[in-house]
Write a structure and sequence with these properties.
Metallo-beta-lactamase, Chain A; six-stranded mixed sheet; 31% helix; 3 domains; 578 residues; Ubiquitin-like (UB roll); eight-stranded mixed sheet; single chain; alpha/beta; Rossmann fold
Length: 578
């Protein structure tokens, strides 16, 4: 689109329009990404990830499908990041190289992002712009005001975005904590000012919309920790938390200082983030308190606190490797107590429970959320959400960031404070909400907005056949049948058969004899003419499946492997896999 046509659209009320397009974060916890589009200009809010559940075996994480943004790359002016949690920043290693647009965020948020990119994309140099709460910047046709909000990580901001058609307020993650750990409260005055100017659209955090009343202050954790440190005075204390949760780390450090304990950080992300937070002044710990993990043998149990990752049961995190007895520096036992200072993200329940069970099996005492109040949510509860609605007094409202039930409840809260149901829009990812100058907004069409799975360095559609194969193998096992034939399809050696996860009983000798027999029979029936690997694989697969289902009702994945020995190619074997 030419700049002249853009100018004409902005000066033609009939053509001028503003759209909100969520690409992630609606109907789910995680992978937050929201697009605001005015004529030919686009800004993006957040770029998060979501952790996989048991239906996605082997997948590292999930990010939004950004096909729409890639198709409109030249129209994107910036990505604005509200805070440093993974569900708002974790997609950037996937997104930034594909879009390579300016990134705006606060000091700590950008520092955490740099640490993440240093691991995943060490050669990539993003265009980062540091802002502070209270800043007002101009980005194309958008004027953005950054507003301080309290959450469970420092340096969070909400966004007030003034557009030619009206003002949009996006709260980000927030709560109305009057006594936050770092003393940085949500800026009520700024939200009230935006409300006085007139808010056309409010997009607000729905995570705790079902919870009555107010979310407790972060400071109550300090009291809980103090009690726990007194209770387990003689034990070595191991703390598991999110590496980005600087508030929790500060509270642990403060209590550790009162009990004269040294602190050792374990895990690369935990060490990096703690160093970053100390360098930038968000984490205040006396350097004399910090020791290396390799030095813990110098101290008695009652002198030590180890802070590590793994509160969500992440397979390669510090806590999980310790629970498996695989950590080179730390052996767990009856002298240890483990505190899990985080709530379980939906979908991670099984991983966390397995970790807790392994810790108990190692002889540790384990204190987790169900036992005592060792975690406080960083999200506003129902009364706080109503206060936000009253401060901003929006004409229209879209609940964001939460499962669908949370968004429904949030819409009901909006009605309780006087917003008309026809001015509340429950949306799904990919849906387009369009505003024009002389007409009420309406949902109009969709863009592509699914999920992309990340497995190591590979990315693919969530509908990938690979996932189907992984689920089948995990449920029923796999049996591989390898045969070697000559050019005429004659068997050169007895078949080789290997199985994984197929036979529950050790008494499978008769079944194996039958499998060898039917595999040889399949080769013999097709021998005597030019070898046809495709036909041979199909025949072996059919016969092996028949035996498995007849003998033990197994639906194992059958993988025939055919090697054709060609005289023309000497000793080179052509290996073809199913």
């Amino acid at each position: 689109m030419s700049r002249n046509s853009s100018y004409r659209r902005r000066n033609d009320p009939a053509a001028e329009k503003l759209s909100l397009i969520p690409l992630g974060g609606l109907g789910e916890i995680g992978k937050n990404m929201y697009v605001i589009e005015y004529c030919d200009e686009i800004i993006v809010i957040d770029s998060g990830l979501k952790f996989p559940d048991s239906e996605l075996p082997g997948i590292d994480y999930i990010v939004p499908d950004i096909s729409y943004l890639e198709q409109n790359r030249d129209r994107i002016l910036a990505i604005l990041i509200t805070h440093g949690h993974e569900d708002h920043t974790g997609g950037l290693p996937y997104v930034l190289p594909r879009l390579n647009v300016p990134l705006y965020g606060t000091q700590l948020t950008l520092g955490l992002i740099r640490n993440k990119l240093a691991d995943d994309l060490p050669a990539f140099r993003p265009d980062m712009h540091e802002i502070r709460a209270g800043d007002v910047i101009k980005i194309g046709s958008f004027t953005v005001r950054f507003i301080a909000v309290a959450h469970s990580i420092p340096d969070c901001v909400a966004l007030s975005i003034e557009t030619p058609l009206g003002r949009i307020v996006h709260t980000g993650d927030f709560k109305l904590d009057s006594t936050p750990v770092d003393g940085r409260v949500t800026d009520y005055g700024a939200f009230a000012e935006e409300g006085d100017k007139g808010v056309m659209l409010l997009c607000s955090d729905s995570t705790n919309a079902e919870r009555k009343g107010f979310t407790p202050s972060e400071r109550i954790i300090s009291g809980t920790l103090d009690t726990l440190f007194r209770t387990y005075r003689t034990k070595r204390i191991i703390i598991s938390s999110f590496a980005s949760n600087v508030h929790r780390i500060q509270q642990v450090a403060d209590v550790s200082a009162r009990f004269n304990r040294k602190i050792a950080f374990l895990g690369r992300s935990m060490i990096r983030n703690a160093e970053l937070a100390r360098e930038t002044g968000y984490l205040k710990i006396d350097s004399k308190m910090i020791i290396q993990v390799e030095e813990i043998w110098k101290y008695s149990d009652n002198q030590l606190v180890i802070i590590t990752t793994g509160s969500q049961g992440e397979p390669f995190s510090g806590l999980v490797t310790m629970s498996r007895g695989e950590n080179r520096s730390i052996d767990l036992g009856e002298h240890d107590v483990v505190f899990l200072l985080a709530s379980v993200i939906p979908g991670n329940e099984k991983l966390v429970n397995n970790t807790i069970n392994r810790l108990f099996a190692q002889g540790c005492e384990v204190v987790y959320e169900k036992d005592r109040q060792i975690h406080v949510s960083g999200h506003a509860s129902s009364e706080e959400l109503k206060i936000m609605l009253n401060l901003t007094r929006p004409q229209y409202f879209v609940p964001v960031h939460g499962e669908y039930k949370h968004m429904v409840r949030h819409s009901q809260l909006a009605q309780e404070v006087g917003i008309s149901p026809r001015n509340i829009f429950l949306m799904v990812n990919g849906e387009i909400l369009t505003f024009t100058r002389n007409n009420p907004p309406k949902k109009h069409g969709h863009v592509q907005a699914g999920a992309v799975i990340i497995d190591g360095q590979a990315a693919g559609s969530i509908r990938s056949e690979v996932l189907k194969e992984r689920r089948e193998i995990s449920e029923d096992g796999v049996i591989a049948v390898a045969v070697a034939v000559d050019e005429k399809g004659n068997l050169l050696a007895p078949p080789a058969i290997e199985t994984q996860g197929v036979f529950i009983s050790e008494d499978s000798g008769d079944i194996f004899k039958e499998l060898y027999a039917v595999s040889e029979q399949a080769v013999q029936e097709l021998s005597g003419r030019r070898a046809n690997p495709d036909a041979l694989r199909k025949a072996i697969k059919t016969r092996v499946r028949d035996v498995l289902r007849k003998r033990n009702s197994s639906f194992a994945v059958v993988m025939p492997i055919v090697s054709v020995n060609s005289r023309d190619s000497g000793n080179i074997f052509e290996k073809e896999f199913f």
